[in-house]
Amino acid sequence: MTDRISNTFNSTVGGAKQTIGETIGNNNLAASGAQQKAQADAAQKAADAKTHAEGVGHKVQGEVQQNVGSLTGNTSMEARGHANEVRGDLERKV
């Protein structure tokens, strides 16, 4: 979560620097702000993709655990599977 906060902060600050630079005619400040915003936005997209992929993995793991637990009568494994499946669903929605 701290990466999300950091990326959001850097994107906002970069956008503000870009706007201020453009408003006062300072091309260096505007370019610096645009670069900071672009880097933060790219980092956030990469983090989102990673979280989504992890979510898919947890969902699949959970489904397998549920099925194996159900077939073997292992209610503990079945419950862990359900928890992993829910975790995966949540990670994919972030």
Automatic annotation (TrEMBL):
Which InterPro entries does this one have?
YjbJ_sf
Where is the region Disordered? Answer: 1-20, 32-57, 71-94
Biased composition range(s): Basic and acidic residues: 47-57, 79-94
Which segments show compositional bias classed as Low complexity?
34-46
Q: Cross-referenced SUPFAM superfamilies, in alphabetical order?
A: Hypothetical protein YjbJ
Annotated Polar residues bias: 1-13
Region forming the signal peptide: none
Q: Name the chain's protein.
A: CsbD-like domain-containing protein
Native source organism of the sequence: Linnemannia elongata AG-77
